[in-house]
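[step 3/7] fold_predict: job queued, chain A
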Amino acid sequence: MPQYNQPLELSTRQTRWIFVGLGLVFNLCLGSIYSWSVFRIPLEKLFQIGATQTGIPFTVVLVFFAGLMPIAGGLIEKYGPRNLAIIGGTLVGLGWFLAGFANNILLVSICFGIIAGSGVGIAYGVPISVVTKWFPDKKGLAVGITLIGFGLSPLFTAPIARWLIHQYGPLQTFSILGITFFIILILLSLAFRFPPAQWQQQSKLVNQSRLVNTQADISVANMVTSSRFYGLWFCYIIGTFSGLMAIGISSPVGQEIIQLSPDTAAFFISIFAIFNGIGRPLFGWLTDKITPRLTAIISFIIILCSSLGMLITATAPSAIVYLFCFSGFWLTLGGWLATAPAATAIFFGTFDYAKKYGIVYTAYGIGAIFGNLLSGRLRDIFGSYLYVFYPTAFLAIIGIFIAYCLLKPPKYLPVKDTNG
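[step 4/7] structure written:
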């Protein structure tokens, strides 16, 4: 892999880490959608509905999240990261707030799913694009650290939401969180900016590695016709299918199969969130070091082992097995949310990066739709969430073959080192 020799000024190298920190906190608010499972049982009781219905808002939020990514990705360069972040943050806060006035699951799906989901989709790409431009030498690591916030969000928001639900009920909890998120997101949005044009040009000149990726900076049109794109896209679908399915049912599985109390289940989700957060810098670093192909294969092996482990609980329910298996699911989901953006830059370059990753990110929405709809449907048909782990195990095996065959490392050619 390329070894960068980038003589940036010391002040620039230090201050650019500020954007990683800002992005991390920004993503803590956006990632609150991953705490949805603590709302499911309270809403089922409140509206007298089943698991399929309470899975709809989470599915909708993920679909609009993924659907707006390609559109917003093409607008970040034109309108600037600050403006996109403000628009997205406003919609996130508004969606959560309005969900507090819903009297049925359809209105919750509209407010939380469509409005807040659109806001997440618009705002999510902002920290990634900003950090990618500030860190041409450490894309995987920097993006992974930035995305820790999204993964760690349930560590904080799940127990907070659980406590608020206990005190005020699920609907008022939506409104309280909406106001909080709006204030934080708008304040953070004001600080986002791209590096100055002069610095970006300097980076292009001095960021000459001893090895140059011969596939880098291809056009969007050429990207979508390449085998690497489809390999990455299908692998991303499988990774998010398994991970988002697990996230959406973490609390119900803990309560119904492992017989945990609601508070204990919420506590476990906080632990899972740690693994989700760790997965981002870990798999981002692995993507930089050992290629996207090997990183993808590792993630699918973990998903396969986690799926088989959960099937064991059919005859021997175990909180320890549940802890290890769902930690694996959350770890790999976090990993894919760092592997995919880093792999996009490695395979296709950083020119028009936001647009390229926006297209790749549509895989997230597809994984969300099938993962969440299937989990609720299987639960309602068979009366247990255990049956969802058969398709995750099967798809993990398919993912290993796709990654091996299609995610071939790009070729690198030696070039003259102009920096001595």
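[step 5/7] annotate
The first helix runs from residue 10 to 15.
The chain is about 80% helix and 0% strand.
exit 0
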